[in-house]
Design goal:
By secondary structure, the chain is of the alpha+beta class. The protein contains eight helices and nine strands.
Length: about 240
């Protein structure tokens, strides 16, 4: 039904991308999981991956204590040989860390790209690798933060991605997530939202119900298809 690469021990795995795309158009699951359409990465995706890689390395150095403060982060970035637009994105990342620090928020993450998963029953698991998760020992609260190269889709959809991770984190690690956030490498724009388990849980179990019924009805529109990676391959595309 879903292809060998999309199951493990007969458990269907639902990733963040699967979940978010499914909210807009259920046919994306059919394209990705059933037809197994592979879409080559765009130049924008490749540059976004490069920015993620640099940010991840900096976060590891901060967490290990090899970088002791943000001044040392700035000095390191100045010495890196980076393409101009990637350097610009990483400098925005540094400004984000400085913003957190100036607002008395943790800027050294507790979790960096760790795989988390949770069994939602009936042969399904939600899985994810959040970019970073911060922990504030003063409040015992956790915050999930997503890195984005650019804000190319509705901000609520991006925050829903972080909500998806927050749900798995709360269930799998038994912690209390307070809020979710994202930051854009390209613009430095950031936005946060109070975490709410109810909405994302309902969407997850609605998705499982549709998958059980093999309901992959397409929902094409110019806005949805414009940002869909399958628009060039989908017979219903309006993009």
């Amino acid at each position: 039904m879903f292809g060998d690469g999309n199951t493990r021990n007969k458990i269907v795995l639902i990733s963040k991308t699967d979940f978010i795309d499914f909210q807009k158009c259920r046919y994306t699951w059919y394209m990705r999981k059933v037809l197994q359409v592979n879409v080559p990465p765009t130049e924008n995706m490749i540059k976004g991956t490069s920015m993620h890689n640099v940010a991840r390395s900096i976060n590891y150095l901060l967490r290990s204590g090899k970088l002791k403060n943000l001044e040392e982060v700035s000095e390191l970035i100045s010495k890196l040989e980076l393409e101009e637009d990637i350097r610009f994105g990483i400098e925005n990342f540094l400004r984000y860390l400085e913003y957190r620090n100036s607002n008395d928020a943790p800027y050294i993450p507790k979790i960096i790209e760790e795989r988390i998963e949770y069994d939602v029953g009936d042969g399904y698991k939600v899985v994810g690798i959040p970019d970073v998760v911060y922990f504030d020992p003063r409040t015992n609260f956790w915050e999930v933060v997503e890195y984005k190269k650019s804000v190319y889709r509705d901000e609520e959809d991006i925050l829903l991605e972080a909500m998806f991770y927050g749900y798995i984190l709360e269930k799998a690690r038994r912690v209390r997530v307070e809020k979710v956030s994202f930051v854009s490498f390209d613009s430095g724009h950031t936005r946060s939202k109070e975490y709410s388990a109810g909405e994302v849980e309902r969407k997850i179990f609605d998705m499982v119900s549709f998958l059980d019924k093999m309901d992959f009805e397409p929902s094409p529109s110019e806005d949805v298809c414009r940002i869909c990676i399958f628009r060039k391959y989908c017979p219903y595309s309006k993009g």
